[in-house]
Amino acid sequence: METQPVTTDQSMMAHPALSFNSVSKTFPDGTRALDDISFSIEPGEFVTVVGPSGCGKSTLLRIASHLEECTSGSYSIDESSIGYVFQDATLMPWRTVQRNVELIAELHKIDKPTRAQLVQEAISLVGLSGFEEKYPRQLSGGMKMRASLARSLVLKPKVFLFDEPFGALDEITRERLNDELLRLFQHEGFAGLFITHSISEAVYMSTRVMVMSARPGRITHTFDIPFAFPRTHDLRYEPEFARICGEISHALRGEQQ
In this structure, what are the phi and psi dihedrals at residue 163, rounded to the nearest 5 degrees? Predict the structure, then answer.
């Protein structure tokens, strides 16, 4: 069974939404974080990177978002709109959900009527309608991550970067948010680069999973995920799903030795 692309606009496929060409990173203290990373992501692809702790996965995201510079190599990204969701929700405790979600649009100086419409659409998309006036202290961990997703969705990003956004959540909440994020992915058609330590999460979410070696991080294995969208919870119990998870686990264990 072949993966079905989310995007239907063939003109979007002229250039990758995100690409790395022989990207390496060495920090000033001499630590080599990344070594010769090359891959690209097209619009409508959701690519996940798994690897040992400290292998440079988050550094790769920071380079893509211009928060770090690579030491050598080059990269390109569709800069018309980039979304970034961190490991923590990073909400401002003194702002309500609505005020948190509108922050990025506010910083981009979008006029108030347009901003209000975009914010309401994003809040609705993540299922937080009715919680607009709540403060972060009044939200569960899952709801905080929904608010963080909504904040990045406001500008309708063409490229979405996710740095283990669900790692601190309980399993049930995590699986629900996996489903929510996949629904948003299909609805918006963005290019996604997702970082996680969970192999099952990687397989469930992705069109492609890449395994990174221990530091300095290198891409050692690539797995195309052959499941069509939409995906349902029961996919996790199918033999083919278990087989792919096993192959990725085997590759990952080899990189940790």
Answer: -105, 85
Co-location of 2 and 67 in the same domain: yes
At 186, which CATH number?
3.40.50.300
252 and 170 in a common domain: yes
- Tens-place pLDDT, residues 65-99: 999 999 999 999 988 788 998 888 889 999 999 99
The residue type at 182: L
Strand order in the sheet with 191-195: 82-85, 159-163, 191-195, 46-50, 208-212, 219-224
User: What end-to-end distance do the CA atoms of the chain give, in Å?
Assistant: 33
Task: Please report the pLDDT score of residue 87 as a whole number.
Answer: 85
Indicate the helix (H) or strand (E) that contains 246: helix 239-256
Q: Which domain holds residue 13?
A: 1-81+161-257
Run of H or E residues at 64 = helix 57-64
| Tens-digit pLDDT profile for residues 113-122 | 999 999 999 9
**Residue partners of 22: CB distance under 8 A and separation at least 6:** 36, 37, 38, 72, 73, 74
Q: What is the pLDDT of residue 119?
A: 92
Last residue of a domain, one of 136, 156, 176: 156
CA angle (146, 150, 155) in 5-degree steps:
160
Taking alpha carbons only, the member of 196, 201, 191 closest to residue 225 is 201
- Phi, psi for 35 (deg, rounded to 5): -140, 110
Question: Is residue 216 domain-shared with residue 246, that is, in the same domain?
Answer: yes
For residue 245, the model assigns a pLDDT of 97
Model pTM score:
0.87
